[in-house]
Fold this protein.
Amino acid sequence: MKNLRLKSARAALDLSQQQLAEKVGVSRQTISAIEKGDYNPTVNLCIAICKALGKTLDELFWEE
Amino acid sequence: MTNNVILPIVLAAAAVLVVVLIRTKKQEKHYDERQLLARNAAFKTAFFTLVSACFICGFLDLLDIHWAEASIQMFLIALLAITVFVCIAIFKDAYFDASKRNRYTFIISVFTLAALNLAVTMVTLWQDGNLSSQVYYLFTSLCFCAVGIVSIVKTVKDKKSEDEV
């Protein structure tokens, strides 16, 4: 399932996938795979992404 | 296998080892968690390719179909497994590490090596109905070509997805 919340949170900060990837220390393709729903990140990576985007885990990764 | 084949292989292996050691000391490769998973999957596929190829060669040997010397078969199987790993890893974005690198240099190097190996193969390939040791170079060339083509396809796909973002 696509993670549109992550994509929109990144876009809101005007960050490219590459910039976010550099902030959290992964490859651009990994960010792309998470946004497309092709890869489920570990909790550590989720936390790093949340910190980089200033969001909580619930806001970005919790599914109702 | 004759000495004139063993010596270049040993020299090439030594040269590769030195380069790898220097590069490893210079910069540690950093793969992220997705890349590590993808590399593990690629290793697994390469391993099963290796085992399957060994079984096929053994089965052909049982049927008295001798298409090459045992040493040549061993070399080809090992090279096949390595190529499978490299191609899958490149395709899953898990060959190059997370930092930005110049892939074009890699692609050019791969095709140069493929051309060099192909040139060496121009000498007779078949001897007494069996593949001669020249097949090393032909197969190496084909493997480099495969890696190069996969790299180009992946680079083009990456460019497209970057443009979409």
The longest strand of chain B covers residues 126-127. The first helix of chain B runs from residue 3 to 26.
